[in-house]
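Re: [ENG-882] Designed sequences occasionally contain unexpected residues at chain ends

Forwarding the minimal case from QA. Structure tokens:
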């Protein structure tokens, strides 16, 4: 029996044409069907246009729309393929990993560095690889398929701006590869999944603060007033300058433990954080209620916190438990509390 795939298009480079003042998405979801004719014998691709935007304009509203569409169509289709712009694809993949958990059906995101209309392009290969991946019996959960790589939705990061090899799997091995039109899996899910879980809320009250040497503490009262969660991109393994720690200690006295989440991540792409290594990190962790991201990607941390805040939990303990709970390979079990 032919598999039924819902093809969700959102715009992005893959669907773009030069407008004279830069690339702009122009292709409709129907237009994509002419590029996948060789799969007609094995599957039915049903196109659905979610939006037609540059992925720079993607936000949590779009993530929730995608999750809702997949939920509404979950029983009708065998798999879901999302065509997406590359710039924020890692954020969308991470967000969907939290909004749709334990999915037995594959939800694959792909895109391209060059338009599918270009003569020389990676678009057709990526689109075909995406289809091959969703057709494979072993595929499940949210994945990014790009340049032959199959990456867990919480581990993808765009690491090249122009190369076809645009995405890397951060601090975690590739789930698999697509080589010579064949899907090879390195990591196979042996445990049968629980029932799929869908979530419909994300709280946008998360602020990312990239620390720079000598950064002023004067914005701290304002950020805490406006946001419920602050992710700090610290230096090295996750250090917080002394003057910022003192300012946070003063300001945090006004809030209950569950009202404001402080999260420490690192500006370094690989190998993760380790706040206990240096005094500047350990003091911050001992004196302030810092959550630590360890080997998680920034995109996963950002999306996971929006998901946790969206649950409206008032128990600090429960927030911490969820943050350290492994979801779609986002954190190594050694760090899961």
């Amino acid at each position: 029996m032919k598999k039924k795939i819902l093809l969700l298009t959102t715009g992005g480079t893959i669907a773009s044409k030069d407008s004279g003042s830069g690339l702009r998405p122009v292709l409709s979801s129907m237009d994509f069907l002419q590029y996948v004719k060789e799969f007609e014998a094995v599957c039915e691709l049903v196109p659905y246009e979610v939006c037609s935007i540059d992925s720079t304009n993607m936000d949590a509203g779009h993530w929730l729309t995608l999750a809702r569409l997949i939920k509404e169509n979950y029983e009708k289709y065998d798999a879901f393929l999302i065509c997406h712009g590359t710039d924020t694809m890692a954020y969308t993949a991470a967000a969907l990993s939290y909004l749709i958990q334990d999915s037995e059906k594959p939800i694959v995101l792909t895109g391209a560095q060059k338009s599918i209309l270009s003569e020389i392009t990676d678009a057709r290969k990526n689109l075909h690889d995406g289809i091959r991946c969703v057709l494979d019996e072993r595929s499940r959960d949210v994945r990014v398929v790009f340049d032959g790589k199959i990456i867990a939705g919480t581990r993808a990061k765009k690491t090249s701006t122009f190369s076809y090899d645009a995405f890397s799997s951060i601090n975690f091995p590739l789930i698999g590869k697509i080589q010579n039109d064949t899907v090879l899996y390195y990591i196979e899910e042996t445990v049968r999944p629980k029932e799929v879980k869908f979530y419909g809320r994300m709280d946008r009250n998360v602020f990312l603060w990239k620390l720079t040497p000598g950064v002023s503490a004067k914005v701290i009262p304002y950020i805490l007033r406006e946001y419920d969660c602050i992710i700090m991109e610290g230096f090295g393994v996750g250090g917080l300058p002394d003057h910022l720690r003192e300012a946070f200690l003063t300001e945090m006295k006004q809030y209950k433990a569950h009202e404001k989440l402080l999260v420490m991540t690192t500006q370094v792409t690989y190998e993760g954080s380790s706040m206990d290594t240096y005094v500047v990190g350990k003091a911050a962790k001992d004196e302030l209620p810092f959550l630590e991201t360890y080997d998680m990607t920034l995109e996963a941390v950002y999306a996971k916190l929006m998901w946790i805040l969206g649950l409206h939990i008032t128990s600090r303990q429960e927030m911490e438990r969820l943050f350290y709970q492994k979801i779609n390979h986002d954190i190594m079990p050694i760090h899961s509390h």
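QA comment: On inspection the terminal residues look reasonable. The longest strand covers residues 43-53. Proposing we downgrade this to a documentation issue.
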